[in-house]
Amino acid sequence: GAVVSQHPSWVICKSGTSVKIECRSLDFQATTMFWYRQFPKQSLMLMATSNEGSKATYEQGVEKDKFLINHASLTLSTLTVTSAHPEDSSFYICSGGGGNNQPQHFGDGTRLSIL
Amino acid sequence: GDSVTQMEGPVTLSEEAFLTINCTYTATGYPSLFWYVQYPGEGLQLLLKATKADDKGSNKGFEATYRKETTSFHLEKGSVQVSDSAVYFCALSRNRDDKIIFGKGTRLHILP
């Protein structure tokens, strides 16, 4: 079946660092991918919709300058957390595929810890 | 707007007990409904789905039926195992834009 690969799975870095997370669709083309954020013991919050070849669509309250999304090809979307701070520490998950009543396929997530 | 409401956890059961996790939704049109499971330290896995009214999704002994009249999609399993301990998310997909709306999740603990 369709697989979404997310990398890295875990990253620890100092405050002020920018961190890039990659989300790849391995056996399907994704014109649209989604980025979620999950706080401990909470549900997934949709951050933005990544659109191939155009600007991402951000949900209300999500800082687009803080969370940069690039979707330059049909198989790769990236999320860059710029100048990360401890409050950005979270579990970030991407998804792709779906359409025609089919479920999204989720990456395994990236645990980001900012010291 | 569209939303999903599921019972709050944690839910603690003994092995072989019967499980029900309630889920109701609010949506315009005819969404697709899903249950996802998240095991400790892992991402989300699709557990089962239903795309139209009266459809029953099933997988690994879990079942859920799409009830349009009650706008519900309750998850059931007749005999749970310790390995079923995880967080379960009810979700709907807005077919017009493929966005998924998640419930808050229900943490399930199964005791041996």
Annotation keywords:
heterodimer; A: 115 residues; mainly beta; seven-stranded mixed β-sheet; four-stranded antiparallel β-sheet; B: 112 residues; six-stranded mixed β-sheet; globular
Q: Would you give an account of this structure?
A:
- The complex is a heterodimer of chains A (115) and B (112).
- Chain A is mainly β and 115 residues long.
- Chain A has no helices and 11 strands.
- The mean pLDDT of chain B is 92.
- In chain B, strand 5 (32-38) and strand 6 form a beta hairpin.
- Chain B has 112 residues and is an all-beta fold.
- The chains are: A mainly beta (115), B mainly beta (112).
- The A-B interface holds A 6, 32, 34, 41-44, 46, 49, 93, 95, 98-99, 101, 103-109 and B 32, 34, 36, 42-46, 49, 51, 89, 93, 95, 97-105, 107.
Quick structural overview:
The complex is a heterodimer of chains A (115) and B (112). Chain A is mainly beta and 115 residues long.
- The number of distinct helices of chain A, counting runs of at least 4 residues, comes to 0
What composes the largest sheet of chain A? 7 strands, mixed
Q: Helical amount among residues of chain A, as a percent range? A: under 10%
> Roughly what percent helix of chain B?
under 10%
How far apart lie the N and C ends of chain A?
A: 37 Å
| Global structural class of chain B | mainly beta
Helical region count of chain B?
0
Radius of gyration of chain A: 13 Å
Q: List segments of chain B where confidence is low: pLDDT < 50 over at least 5 consecutive residues.
A: none
* C-alpha-based Rg of chain B, rounded: 13 Å
Order of helices and strands of chain B: EEEEEEEEEEEE
Count all strands of chain B and give the number. 12
Low-confidence stretches of chain A: none
Beta strand % of chain A: over 45%
Helix vs. strand class of chain A: mainly beta
The oligomeric state is heterodimer
Number of strands of chain A: 11
- What does the overall shape of chain A look like? globular
Mean pLDDT of chain A: 90
